[in-house]
Amino acid sequence: MTTGAGIWFTGLPGSGKSSVARAVAKALEAAGRPVTLLSMDARRKVYFPVPAYTEDERESAYLMFAGDAAGLVREGRVVIMDATGNRKRWRDRARALIPRFAEVFVSCPVSVAMAREASRPEGLVMAGLYAKALARKATGEEVPGLGEVVGVDVPFEADPAAECVVDAATLSVNQARDEVLRFLDGWL
């Protein structure tokens, strides 16, 4: 029987965590692992159909996200958790719920994340969110549908004890995937 595990890919919006998480999930599936990719961008719309991205809403969303992942891990799944999770306590909560848990920090300077995010098309997350947040900060004008933006309005709390750190500013998605897979080879 396969032992379940939770692997949380965290980092700034635009850092590349979703691309790396998807690439790792695909590689694990190809190796025959029972993988579930759990994306906060998709789950948030289930938890809050019209998300406000406030601190209170994020607190509730991450509690539900960790619970969803823990349930899937108990079923023996390898759960790839793709979520910014900017507060360390949210990732710590998942760690407490999931016996086999690892954090993959997709490290990226905010300037690089902003440049990448600027070219992202509209989708599950508002496009151009950094530019809109910076404009709001400069002018005080509200942007409909734009909540607190990690890296501009609220900080990202890195965990110095993260099990795996990849430098997404210098590595390609495939190189970052391979680095994570090397870590997982001994861990899973």
Notable characteristics:
five-stranded parallel sheet; about 190 residues; alpha/beta; globular; 7 helices
What can you see in these coordinates?
There is one protein chain. By secondary structure, the protein is of the alpha/beta class. It contains seven helices and five strands; from the N terminus they run βαβααβαβααβα. The protein has helices at residues 17-30, 40-47, 55-74, 88-97, 110-118, 129-139, 173-187, and strands at residues 5-10, 35-39, 78-82, 101-107, 164-167. It has a five-stranded parallel β-sheet with strand order 2-3-1-4-5, sandwiched between helices. Helix 2 (40-47) packs across helix 3. The protein is globular and about 50 Å long. The relative contact order is 0.22.
List the helices and strands and how they pair.
Layout: E1 5-10, H1 17-30, E2 35-39, H2 40-47, H3 55-74, E3 78-82, H4 88-97, E4 101-107, H5 110-118, H6 129-139, E5 164-167, H7 173-187
Parallel strand pairs: 1-3, 1-4, 2-3, 4-5
Terminal CA distance reads: 13 Å
In total, the number of strands is: 5
User: Largest beta sheet, briefly?
Assistant: 5 strands, parallel
Strand order of the largest sheet: 2-3-1-4-5
Mean pLDDT over all positions: 93
Radius of gyration: 16 Å
What percentage of residues falls in helices of 4 or more residues?
40-55%
> Which oligomeric form is depicted?
single chain
Structural class: alpha/beta
| Amount of beta strand | 5-15%
The ordered string of helix (H) and strand (E) elements is EHEHHEHEHHEH
How many H/I helices? 7
